[in-house]
Amino acid sequence: MKFRCERDVLADALATAGRAATSRTGTLPVLSGVRLEVQGDELSVTGTDLELAIRLTLTVGGERDGAVVVPARLVADIVRSLPAGAVDVSLGDEELSISSGRSQFSVRPLGLDDYPQQTEPSADAVTLASADVADALKQVVRAASTDDARAVLTGVLITADDDGVRMVATDSYRLAVRELPDSNILASGQKVLVPSRALNELQRILGGSEELTVRLGARDAVFEAGGTRLTTRLIEGEYPNYRNLLPSQHPNVLTVEREALLEALRRVKIMARDATPVRLGLGGDTVQLTAITQDLGTASEEIDARYEGAEMTVAFNPEYLTAGVDALDTDELTLSTMDPMKPAVIRGVGRDDYLYLLMPVRVP
Predict the structure, then answer these.
(1) Whole-angstrom distance, CA of residue 68 vs CA of residue 30
(2) Which of 241, 257, 281 is the last residue of a domain?
(3) Domain count, the chain
(4) Which of 69, 87, 114 is a domain's end point?
């Protein structure tokens, strides 16, 4: 195997594929590597941990076909450290040579025969606009759990809706729901549970392409954008009935400028240490934000708002509240609730396709 490629292009490909390679001990050593394969002027770079696989296809100056598996992080660090310009890569009898200018590295390969074979996707392909999917993922994935103890909550539920699909994520403290109309990637009544880790990686990939091709199978999902393919195993299990969390009515409605609330939250939560909640005083034509941390002090800020309902104080985890406000893309938002101990619903004014539900925190 022998090829030449620009440093930045090769470094980006190695970094992207390397994010799927495992760093966990106790697994197959070869899974800590990336597989490089040259056929003609095409180089494929693949990383996998058996749950997630990322493969990129690049155009290079190919001189000799072949394949090799090399340590992912080591080779990525080597290529990134080289001077700008072309990088020459060639495989000898026992080592992979990487050189640029006067810099020369030799790396011992991992076992090529032990590397898992990547199968071609079999499900039917559906093409979507990358920007629409990226926008939805940005809003929903942030609400998924990172606790593997409840595996189903680490996924994003994608389910067929009347005229499209719905994406849902929750960590049991908050819930994000996004409608994607006219996105017929699922059959009627079908639903899949996609790991949030895979969708976080997909968000990175979508930035450089206009279209996304999706194949959703019974056990895996395949996403292709540009020259990158991401394959992930689906999560098995029954997702909680999130519809029961959605309040049927919310008579108390706060309307406020998104950016003003976001800036106030960023300042006030400086004082919200050790899971201290941020309190929102609702009533009149302002909203009062307050954070009180024993032995440290108090932060408060008042911003203009419109409010309809009973005067009350409701408190939230500041990080979760900030994440929900940040997910919106409208100038104004509404925060609707029944009482200080019932879930609140955050929506963008004029946008009915997304909601962020947040459990309040009990305060004295």
Answers:
(1) 11
(2) 241
(3) 3
(4) 114
Confidence (pTM): 0.91
Separation CA 136–CA 140 (nearest Å): 6
Counted residue by residue, the chain has a size of 364
d(CA 299, CA 278): 9
Is 294:309 a contact under the CB 8 Å cutoff? no
Single-letter code of the amino acid located at 238: E
Question: Which residues, in sequence order, are CB contacts of 70 under 8 Å at separation 6+?
Answer: 33, 34, 36, 96, 107, 109, 110
One domain for residues 67 and 54: yes
pLDDT one-digit tens code per residue, 166-200: 999 999 999 999 998 877 777 777 889 999 999 99
Q: What is the DSSP string of 215-264?
A: EE-SSEEEEEETTEEEEEEPPPSPPP-GGGGS-S---EEEEEEHHHHHHH
| DSSP structure string for 78-108 | HHHHSPSSEEEEEE-SS-EEEEETTEEEEE-
Instruction: Using the structure block, give the residue that is written with the tokens 């309902």.
Output: 309
Strand (E) or helix (H) holding 204: helix 196-206
Residue 22: predicted pLDDT: 82
User: How many Å apart are CA 259 and CA 132, to the nearest integer?
Assistant: 23
What are the residues whose beta carbons fall under 8 Å from the beta carbon of 314, sequence distance 6 or more?
279, 280, 282, 337, 340, 344, 360
Domain hosting 39: range is 2-114
Evaluate whether residue 363 is within a structural domain.
no
For 200-207, which contacts have Cβ atoms below 8 Å and span 24 or more sequence positions?
Answer: 200/141, 201/19, 201/20, 201/52, 201/54, 201/230, 202/133, 202/137, 202/230, 203/134, 203/137, 203/138, 203/141, 204/16, 205/16, 205/54, 205/230, 206/130, 206/131, 206/133, 206/134, 206/137, 207/134
- Same domain, yes or no: 104 and 8: yes
